[in-house]
Every structure is written in C-alpha cells, then in structure tokens.
Amino acid sequence: MKKIIVIAILAFSNWAIAQEKLVCKSGIITFEASVPSFEEVKATNKSVTVVLNPATGEIASLALVKGFRFKVALMEEHFNENYIESDQYPKATFKGKLENFDSNSLTATPKDFTVNGKLELHGKTVAIKTVIKMSKSSGGINMLSNFSVNASDFNIAIPSVVKNKVSNKINVQLNAVLK
C-alpha cells in the first residue's frame, strides 16, 4: 500500500511540476542573409522547441540546424557542410530571461518584453538583448521576436567568392505559440 501511495505522489508531483512550464514544439525560426540584386538567402525551421517558465520569465529554445529548409537544395547543402558545419555543431540554443515578465498582464493585444540571454551557435556563445512581442489567445501565449546577429560573431566564414552575395548581418525571426 505504501508503494502505491508513493508512486501516486511521485506521478502527481511530476504532473504538477510539468504544469509550471509552457512549451511549444513547433516554433518557427526564419533567417535571412540576402543582399539586394542577388538570389535570396533565406531558410525556415518549423520544428523549434521553446520553453517558458511563466513564474520566473526564464525562456529557452532549441533548433536543430539540419531542420532549416532553403528554396534551393544546393544552398541548404552548402549551409550545412561549409558554413554551419551541422555535423559538428548540430544545434542552436538560446537561454535567457524576460525582464519584468508577468504572465497575468498578457492580453490579446501584443505587449513588448525585453529578453536578455545567450545564443549558442557554431560552437560560439553571444549575448543577445532583444524584444519579444507576447499576447494571450485561446491557443496559448503567442510569441514573436525579430533580431539580427552577425555571422562573423559565430566564426562563420563567408568565402570571398560569395561575399557580395551573402550578408554578414543575419535577420532572425522567431514565432511560437506556447501551451
């Protein structure tokens, strides 16, 4: 009988702890490193995981680098093999904290929150400070963020042959619905 009670308590406590965090496993990250007058350098990953602890404002995300899809297959191949080296660096992660976050203040109207954190990509970690727009809907908490990073900050070399066709400045957009 004691075993049943202990198991029930453990199962309930795991369920209760799991309820504290909001999760999205189908977040979308799009990045673009295009330059005018040349072919679009843009990719999207539709299976990004984002976790938010509404009690603390801590936020984390994980994107598998091989999950990024380009319009041109050769671009995707070069991205994985020559630029990101996805076999050696298979994931991109972000860990941060929302300033002055209060989940009770969220409404259907998007509200801006500043997030400070660290983005790890290609074996390098860079501090990021940006704004996340958040709102509440029947589907959960909607999150949208746009920011820019430099490829050179992550030791991603752009070969001189294509330096005029690929921007060092990479515009990143994250879109997720947390439940």
TrEMBL record:
<dbReference type="Pfam" id="PF04264">
    <property type="entry name" value="YceI"/>
</dbReference>
<feature type="domain" description="Lipid/polyisoprenoid-binding YceI-like">
    <location>
        <begin position="14"/>
        <end position="179"/>
    </location>
</feature>
<protein>
    <submittedName>
        <fullName>YceI family protein</fullName>
    </submittedName>
</protein>
<dbReference type="InterPro" id="IPR007372">
    <property type="entry name" value="Lipid/polyisoprenoid-bd_YceI"/>
</dbReference>
<dbReference type="InterPro" id="IPR036761">
    <property type="entry name" value="TTHA0802/YceI-like_sf"/>
</dbReference>
<feature type="signal peptide">
    <location>
        <begin position="1"/>
        <end position="18"/>
    </location>
</feature>
<keyword id="KW-0732">Signal</keyword>
